[in-house]
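Recall that a protein's primary structure is simply its ordered list of amino acids. Everything else, from secondary elements to tertiary packing, is in principle encoded there. The following example makes that idea concrete.
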Amino acid sequence: MKILIINGPNLNMLGKREPEIYGHETLKDIENKCAKEAKAYKNVQLSFSQSNNEGEIVTMIQNAINTYEGIILNAGAYTHTSVAILDAIKAVGIPTIEVHLSNIFQREPFRHHSYVSLGAKGIISGFGSDSYLMAIKYFAHETAN
C-alpha cells in the first residue's frame, strides 16, 4: 500500500514552534519515525510532503489519484478553515486519516471544529508523533485483511 503523508502550514517549524504543545521533534524526526514504522510492514510504502499553502495541499491530494491508496493528513490550521481541502478529499475518494499532534478538543474552541474530518475515514489526535504511527498501522492492517 502506498500512503501519502501530507503536512500543512507551520509543521515545518516543529521543534521550534510551541514545544510545550507540539513537542521537540522536528518534522524530519517524525518522517524518520514513520519510515521506521513502515518497515515493520511489508505492504507499506510512504511518501512525505509539506506545504504552507492551501492550494498546494489541494493539488497534492488531487495528484494522489492512481498513485496512492491512503492519505495521512495533518492539515494544521487548515483543518479548521478549509472547505477546499475537504472538497479535494471527497473528490479523490482515497481513504484519508486526519492526524494531529495535540488534542484539538482540549485547545481553543475554534480548533474543536474540523472540516477535514467530514471527509476523513477517521481522526487520531493528541498522541504526538505516535498519531502518525497509529494511522500507518491502521492502513497496514486494513490492507492485510
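The helical segments are 19-22, 27-39, 54-63, 83-92, 130-144. Residues 4 and 71 are 5 Å apart (CA to CA).
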